[in-house]
């Protein structure tokens, strides 16, 4: 791991705008962490944060919403 990366195995905020975010994510996946944070990283204040949320298969909230015109086109094409 690069000395500029510093992911911590704890719940917290992650900086998706960090130049090392992808490397930290790969590191966390390799160690099979369910969550990680940028608490001790020198890059943690560059941009906005992504709050760590654990989603379950039973969660029914949408990941995103579609404008009505797009939704109609998608559902029409599926029928």
Number of strands: 2
Shape estimate: elongated
Continuous helix count: 2
Question: Class by helix and strand content?
Answer: mainly alpha
Task: Kindly describe this structure.
The chain has 79 residues and is mostly helical. The protein has 2 helices and 2 strands. The protein has helices spanning 21-30, 68-78, and strands spanning 13-14, 50-51.
What's the short version?
This protein is about 25% helix and about 5% strand. It is built from two helices and two strands; from the N terminus they run βαβα.
Write the layout of secondary structure elements.
Blueprint: E1 13-14, H1 21-30, E2 50-51, H2 68-78
Antiparallel strand pairs: 1-2
Provide keyphrases for this structure.
27% helix; 2 helices; mainly alpha; single chain
